[in-house]
Amino acid sequence: QVQLVESGGGLVQAGGSLRLSCAASGRTFSRYAMGWFRQAPGKEREFVAAMSWSGGNTQYADSVKGRFTISRDNAKNTVYLQMNSLKPEDTAVYYCAADIDSSWYVSWDLRNYDYWGQGTQVTVSS
Predict the structure, then answer these.
(1) Are 124 and 83 in contact (CB under 8 A)?
(2) Strand runs (DSSP E) across the chain, as ranges?
(3) Which residues, in sequence order, are bridge partners of residue 36?
(4) SS3 112
(5) 96 with 115: CB under 8 angstroms?
(6) How would you classify residue 119: left for phi > 0, otherwise alpha for psi between -120 and 50, otherwise beta?
(7) 43-87 pLDDT, tens per residue?
(8) What is the pLDDT of residues 18-28, one digit of tens each?
(9) Distance in angstroms between the alpha carbons of the first and the last residue of the chain
């Protein structure tokens, strides 16, 4: 079992920044890949970014490349999402997720993720 708790969401103006955190407990955090997803009202949950266990392999959605950065601190059992140059279309509930079957491979497919946090709201005003 893995428990995930996100934090760091909030209201920010367009062009601003936020850093989301996801604290994990349960299974050995350093052994599995982690991802961030988001879901806007009336839309399906979509992939944002993912990182392998070591941080050496990352993947980003085209919509956030160059603006968002995923990172992890295995000593703190935490994965982060630094979000810069935020746009109103980034408004969504952001979820972190654990893919415990993968260490190096990172997936954009939410079906590959086994555990999910409760989500944190990010609202970007224009």
Answers:
(1) no
(2) 2-7, 10-13, 18-26, 33-39, 46-51, 58-60, 68-73, 78-83, 92-99, 115-116, 120-125
(3) 49, 96
(4) helix
(5) no
(6) left
(7) 999 999 999 998 889 999 999 999 999 999 999 999 999 999 999
(8) 999 999 998 78
(9) 40
